[in-house]
Amino acid sequence: EKYDIERISIKNLTPEEFYERFEKGNKPCIITDLVTEWPAFKLWQKNEFLKRFGDSIFLTTQMDSRGKKVC
Question: If DSSP codes are grouped into helix, strand and coil, which group holds residue 35?
């Protein structure tokens, strides 16, 4: 079954409009451009990581969805 869910940019959505158009009627929506406004969005880009941590060595472990180490 395919759902037609409206997409709307956070840049064009006030809290009042969100309430009236979506929350009040319990209507789902996809809010875009939300994280692009967060400082971490710019800082966590590949080039920024390479600039800051390119010479660092990291040890990693694969984890399952419950947080248990996968051997």
Answer: helix
